[in-house]
């Protein structure tokens, strides 16, 4: 059975994205980025490519959240689209899965080539420093 998706992310997904992103960036940047996600046009990306771009490991079926999403897939329930924030290749900053990591993993375990509906935006500067969250840690590793 294939993965079915909702047309739009659920409102609580944006709240979860903001909570996660708040650990990476200042409040104004997070607010602007989440607002951009809300207004972004849907795109489709494959589960395997999302995991690679975000440099994330595939969570196993034994993970409780992945298991719950796999059960939803099996029951024919629709999953919420994924919220992504683009990294910067020139700075070796990875893409962030702002919300939906477990759904990506469940989709991958179903079929790694499953097209996943996403909202994909770049970090929004909000008039701050113009830096990309995560770039500082990359510079420290040099």
User: What structural class is derived from the secondary structure elements?
Assistant: alpha/beta
Tell me the quaternary state.
single chain
Regions with little confidence, pLDDT below 50 for 5+ residues: 136-142
How many beta-strand runs?
6
Strand content: 15-25%
Radius of gyration: 15 Å
Helix content: 40-55%
Strand order of the largest sheet: 2-6-4-5
Form type: globular
> What string, H for helix and E for strand, traces the elements in order?
EHHEHHEEEHEH
Number of helices: 6
Largest sheet: 4 strands, mixed
Mean pLDDT: 90
* Count of the separate structural domains: 1
Distance between the termini: 46 Å
Summary tags:
4-stranded mixed beta sheet; two-stranded parallel sheet; alpha/beta; 142 residues
Protein described:
It contains 6 helices and 6 strands. It is of the alpha/beta class and 142 residues long. It has one domain (4-140). A 4-stranded mixed β-sheet has the order 2-6-4-5. A two-stranded parallel sheet has the order 1-3. α1 (11-21) runs antiparallel to α2, α3 crosses α5 and α4 (64-74) crosses α5. The radius of gyration is 15 Å and the shape is globular. The model is unreliable at 136-142 (pLDDT under 50).
């Amino acid at each position: 059975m294939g993965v079915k998706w909702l047309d739009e992310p659920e409102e609580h997904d944006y709240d979860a994205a903001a909570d996660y992103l708040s650990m990476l960036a200042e409040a104004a940047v997070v607010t602007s980025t989440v607002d951009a996600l809300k207004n972004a046009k849907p795109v489709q990306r494959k589960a395997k490519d999302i995991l690679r771009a975000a440099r994330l490991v595939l969570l196993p079926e034994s993970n409780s959240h992945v298991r719950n999403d796999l059960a939803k897939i099996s029951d024919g329930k629709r999953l919420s689209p994924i919220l992504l924030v683009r990294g910067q290749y020139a700075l070796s900053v990875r893409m962030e899965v702002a919300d939906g990591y477990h759904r990506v993993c469940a989709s991958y375990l179903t079929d790694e080539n499953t097209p996943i509906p996403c909202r994909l935006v770049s970090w929004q500067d909000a008039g701050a420093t113009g830096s990309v969250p995560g770039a500082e840690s990359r510079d420290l590793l040099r």
